[in-house]
Amino acid sequence: MRKILAIESSCDETACAIVSEDLNVLSSVVSSQIDVHSSFGGVVPEIASRMHVEAISLVIKQALKEANLEVSDVDAIAYTIGPGLIGCLHIGGIAAKSLAYFYNKPLIGVHHLKGHIFINELIEELKYPLLSLVVSGGHTELVYVKDDMHFEIIGTTHDDAIGESYDKVARLMDLQYPGGPKIDKLAKEGKPHYTLTSPKVDNYDFSFSGLKSSCLQLKQRLDRNNEELVIEDLAYAFQETALKQLINKTKLAIENYDVKQFILAGGVAANSRLRELVQEEIKIPYILPPLKYCTDNATMIALAGFHNLRNNKFADYDSESKASLAIDSSNY
Ligand code: KG4
Ligand code: ZN
Fold first, then answer.
1. Nearest-ligand number for the alpha carbon of 85
2. Based on the domain organization, do 262 and 298 belong to the same domain?
3. Closest listed ligand to the CA of 269
């Protein structure tokens, strides 16, 4: 059974996993920098890169130890080649290239969002063509996946990503980064009390910055009137408005594209209300990713890596990490 050792370092998680081709996760180690970045209100790229340098060899060693394997036992080394913070991507890339060179193993570059999509294989086999809604700190995309090598973005955000807007609205409520899980929790206690506006966008595209401004204006108006802002109610109103946009666009795409399956992907896929809405509103077979693997991890990079391995798509020592990397044109 072939095994891949995978490395993820695109943002604020340093991760290494070893996965076998029958989708058995032999180890999956994630070292999160959240505690450090939360005091700054978001990810500080320079600090993130430095922390990857400190963590990467420890994380790789731990993954090997937990799987009870040596690097020589694995069949390929996969790593996130983009998109992400460039300094952070370089650290994972250098580690992967060093291991591949030293142990003479094939090297596989992986597009980060494909990792988020393929993690769903842990739940169930993917059925093509499928539609994926990829929602994370950096992305909000509707992706038409014709087969495991063909991806087409059919809708994207005109401004903020959904996770980014959760984090920004949370900051406005004096909640620490990452705000998504905190708003998710608060909204459960909230009531439909505030009305927020969200701009309309054409086709399958999204927009969240107007909604963020609407939250800010509400807060300022209440402040001016010496009225108290009920943060549970703001969390509720923001979440319902933002998620309605996601679900409505997804339903429209499902109506117009002939897809066999819908899959949710990315950090915001951990959101309990979004998962509930998918169950209530999506009328075709769907997969919700395992909660543990919604946010960044290296298991997802290994799973996507197997597709590249089987399709003979390899990186080499000259392959450059890319801060922005289109999923549709990417060879990775
Ligand atoms: O996929 P991810 O780990 O990193 C990126 O590739 O961006 O996603 C992180 C994002 C953050 O914006 C975080 O606030 C959001 O996912 N997130 C959530 C929840 N858990 C994480 N957003 C809403 N509800 C959640 N439960
Ligand atoms: Zn991610």
1. 1
2. no
3. 1
For the chain, what is the domain count? 2
Atom of ligand 1 nearest to the CA of 84: 6
**Residues 15 and 78 both lie in one domain:** yes
Q: What CATH number corresponds to the domain at position 100?
A: 3.30.420.40
Same domain, 169 and 258: yes
**Cβ < 6 A, ligand 1 pocket:** 11, 136-138, 163, 166-167, 178-181, 184, 266-268, 270-271, 295-296
Task: Assess if residue 202 is contained within a domain.
Answer: yes
Q: Where are the beta strands (DSSP E) in the chain?
A: 3-8, 13-20, 25-32, 76-82, 107-111, 130-135, 140-147, 150-156, 261-265, 286-287
* Smallest CA separation from ligand 1 atom 7, residue: 137
**Token code pair at residue 240:** 């319902």
Q: What global pTM score does this model have?
A: 0.96
DSSP string, 82-95: ESS-HHHHHHHHHH
Same domain, 140 and 263: yes
Span from the CA of 35 to the centroid of ligand 1 (angstroms): 15
Strand intervals (E) in 42-118:
76-82, 107-111
Domain housing 278: 126-288
Evaluate whether residue 322 is within a structural domain. no
Task: Looking at the CA of residue 166, tell me the nearest atom of ligand 1.
Answer: 14
Token pair listed for 117: 């999509």
Tens digit of each residue's pLDDT, the chain (332 residues): 999 999 999 998 999 999 999 999 999 999 988 888 887 878 889 889 999 999 999 999 999 999 999 999 999 999 999 999 999 999 999 999 999 999 999 999 999 999 999 999 999 999 999 999 999 999 999 999 999 999 999 999 999 999 999 999 999 999 998 999 999 999 999 999 999 988 889 999 999 999 999 999 999 999 999 999 999 999 999 999 999 999 999 999 999 999 999 999 999 999 999 999 999 999 999 999 999 999 999 999 999 999 999 999 999 999 999 999 999 877 89
